């Protein structure tokens, strides 16, 4: 076990794969959709505006790549607190449309908090739960 794994176990995070992690796969190329789902895309909507709309519609959202194990760790940490974020899987070209072009990238209340290290940092310093309560993603 390396020091990263030991540190994560110390705060109750485990690394592993979970089935059905992805709530939606974002298709940024314009397609016709008769769906009323917020994960659908309008023909005249750019990838950037689509991502901004998703960020504003979901109190906690994670943008990730399909093979990213750090997203699973982020979800596990949030789930232990009682929050189940929306997870959107992007390909490498779609990642470029993110305000922060790294993945995974988590947003809480419309604000980019960064990746796994930032999320764990918020949790360890005691700032994560108040932020989740403030945006209505967690009830205490």
From TrEMBL:
KW Cytoplasm (keyword) present: yes
PROSITE patterns associated with the record: GLUTAREDOXIN_2
Source species, domain of life: Eukaryota
Residue ranges of every copy of the Glutaredoxin domain listed in the record: 60-111
Pfam families reported for this sequence: Glutaredoxin
Key words, A-Z: Cytoplasm, Redox-active center
GO CC annotations, alphabetized: cytoplasm
SUPFAM superfamilies in UniProt: Thioredoxin-like
Entry similarity comment: Belongs to the glutaredoxin family. CC-type subfamily.
NCBIfam families to which the protein is assigned, alphabetical: GlrX-like_plant (TIGR02189)
Record's protein name: Glutaredoxin domain-containing protein
Species: Glycine max (Soybean)
Gene: LOC100780137
């Amino acid at each position: 076990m390396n020091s990263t794994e030991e540190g994560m176990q110390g705060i109750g995070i485990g690394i592993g794969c979970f089935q059905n992690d992805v709530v939606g796969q974002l298709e940024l190329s314009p397609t016709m959709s008769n769906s009323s789902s917020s994960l659908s895309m309008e023909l005249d909507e750019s990838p950037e505006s689509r991502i901004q709309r998703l960020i504003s519609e979901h109190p906690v959202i994670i943008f990730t790549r399909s093979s990213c194990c750090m997203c699973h760790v982020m979800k596990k940490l949030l789930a232990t607190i009682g929050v189940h974020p929306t997870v959107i899987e992007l390909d490498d070209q779609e990642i470029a449309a993110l305000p922060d072009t790294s993945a995974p990238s988590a947003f809480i209340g419309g604000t980019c908090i960064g990746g796994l290290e930032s999320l764990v940092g918020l949790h360890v310093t005691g700032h994560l739960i108040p932020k989740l309560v403030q945006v209505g993603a967690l009830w205490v």
